[in-house]
Structures are given as C-alpha cells and as structure tokens.
From TrEMBL:
Region span, Disordered: 1-27
Membrane topology field: Multi-pass membrane protein
Compositionally biased residues, Polar residues: 1-11
Organism per entry: Herbiconiux sp. A18JL235
Family under the similarity heading: Belongs to the binding-protein-dependent transport system permease family.
GO cellular component, one term: plasma membrane
SUPFAM superfamilies: MetI-like (SSF161098)
Transmembrane segments annotated in the record for this chain: 36-61, 100-121, 133-153, 165-182, 220-243, 263-286
GO biological process, one term: transmembrane transport
Subcellular location: Cell membrane
Annotated protein name in UniProt: Carbohydrate ABC transporter permease
Domain ABC transmembrane type-1: 96-286
UniProt KW keywords: Cell membrane, Membrane, Transmembrane, Transmembrane helix, Transport
C-alpha cells in the first residue's frame, strides 16, 4: 500500500508534468529540419547518379528500330538482341580476357615497383634522398601525353607493337602517386620495426615483404583498384600500341559499334554494361580492405 502511494506521488510530480523548455523544443525542431534537408539533397544526388545508369540498362534491352519509333525511355518490347550482337559482331569475350590479363599483370608489377620505391624513400638513408623524392613529386605535374611519343619509340624499338606487353611494361615502373601515397603511410610506422628486424638477421627484402607489406594491406588495396580501373578503362594506349582485333581491349571494342554517321546505341550500352561487371566484382572483393585503408588514411 505504501508503494502505491509513492508511485502516485512520483507520477504527479511537478517536474515530470512540466512542459519541455522552449529552447529544447526549438533545437529539436531545427534538427528535424536539418535532417529533412540532408535527406532531400541526398535523394537528389542519388537520382542524378543513378538516373543515367537506369537509362543505360533500359536502352540496352531495346533495338535501334524501337528507339526510332518510340522516343520514350521504356522499351516497347524487351529483347536481348543487343547483348547477342555485342558478342557476335566483335570478339568481345576475347577482348575482355585481354583486358583482364593486361590490367592484372600491369597492376601487380606497378604496385611492386611503387612499394619498393616508397620503402626506399621512407625507411632507407642515402645521399640525395630528398632530391629523389622531389623528383617523384615533380613527375606528378607532367601530363601523360608529353611522354607518349618517346614511349612509343622505345616500345617500337623493343618490337612490342601489337603486343599486350606494350601496355604492361610501362606500368611496371610504378606511379608517382602510388610512391607518394605509400611513403606517407610508411612514414607513420616506427623505424624501430625496420631496425629490430635487421638486428634479428632479416634482410631488407624480407623486412619489406614480411613486416611492412601486411601493414600496408589497406593502402595497397586502394591503389590496386585505382590502377586496375585506370588500365581497364584506358582507351588511348590500346589505340596507339595495338592494331589487330584479337589483341584489343574491351574499351576499344565498344568503338567498333561507333559509325561515322550513325551509331548502334543499344549495342554500345549493352557492351558497356558487360565490361563493367569485372570491375564491379573486383571492387566487391576488395571493399573491406578499401574501407580499412580509407579509415587509416583519415579519408573516411
């Protein structure tokens, strides 16, 4: 009975029954308005990003005749003829395999070269270290078209024209951005790791691949995806160094459907959706490492 009396008094206490302060209600209303504006902006951004992708999917299931008589976005009749044409009129499957080989091998070699260069600039001590690092940063300012003709002369002198190695070997020298990116991560790691491993009898390559390589898994995953996408989407390089259709990459294969006066747009978009599949799978496989790398980089 006593307990009932206490509860009744608590329920009817003036503090609980008092209305919330005016400032608190105003702050809560302001937060709801901010959240509504944020959702509105995000929705508009999502529509702008996903809108062209949805149009691409819908158009790939149409025919050129359907597009001529039906100006709307929705297909009058769903068909897979564009996908069949993309694989029968050009060796698109062979081009996809060529692109996977070139992008994978070029990415692996480029990351290895960039890792070794970054380790030398971050952990080793030698004369002119700062000068070399400055030269690496300076190369970031040089456009790729400036070195296109000298590089073509070197590739031709090696007899690698119309060979996938004409696109792979230049990327095996590494990239200035990758060296800079990995060096900054290595600079955050204590030099005592390197010194302790050397004192224990580990060689310098052993220190790189057994100690620092596992610690750089996140940044290397980011660079792997970026380098793979750059090599996969490269259009200028294959057009300059390759000539036969059996050696071409899928990005060049899409240009075969581009006519001088008219273009088979449904086939081009169907082929574009097909060649996006490998890069999407690779991104999903490395998505966890990418998130970890972005978190370590402070970009998340």
């Amino acid at each position: 009975m006593t307990i009932d009396v206490v509860q009744t008094e608590s329920d009817t206490s003036p503090r609980d029954s008092a209305p919330p302060p005016v400032r608190s209600r105003s702050r809560s209303r302001g937060r709801r308005v901010e959240a509504a504006l944020a959702y509105f902006v995000l929705t508009i951004g999502a529509l702008l990003i996903l809108g062209p992708f949805v149009v691409t999917i819908l158009t790939s299931f149409r025919t050129s005749a359907d597009m001529a008589v039906n100006p709307g976005l929705w297909p009058a009749e769903w068909t897979l003829d564009s996908y069949v044409t993309a694989f029968t009129e050009v060796p698109l499957a062979r081009m996809i395999l060529n692109g996977l080989f070139i992008s994978t091998v070029a990415t692996a070699g480029g990351l290895l070269a960039s890792l070794l260069g970054a380790f030398a600039l971050a952990k080793l001590k030698f004369r002119g270290q700062r000068t070399y690092f400055g030269l690496v940063l300076f190369t970031l300012l040089i456009p790729g078209t400036v070195t296109l003709i000298p590089l073509y002369i070197i590739i031709r002198s090696l007899g690698l024209i119309d060979s996938p190695w004409a696109l792979i070997l230049p990327l095996w020298t590494g990239s200035a951005f990758a060296v800079f990116f990995l060096r900054q991560h290595l600079m955050t790691m204590p030099v005592e790791l390197y010194e302790a491993a050397i004192l224990d009898g580990c060689s310098t390559p052993g220190v790189v691949f057994r100690i620092f390589l596992p610690l750089l898994r996140g940044p290397l995953s980011i660079l792997a995806i970026l380098n793979f996408l750059a090599s996969w989407n490269d259009l200028l390089g294959p057009l300059v160094y390759l000539s036969s259709p059996d050696q071409m990459t899928p990005t060049v294969g899409l240009t075969y459907f581009q006519g001088q006066y008219t273009s088979n747009l449904p086939v081009i978009l169907a082929g574009a959706l097909v060649i996006v599949i490998p890069t999407t799978i690779i991104f999903l496989l490395f998505s966890r490492q990418v998130r970890e790398g972005l978190a370590i980089s402070g970009l998340k």
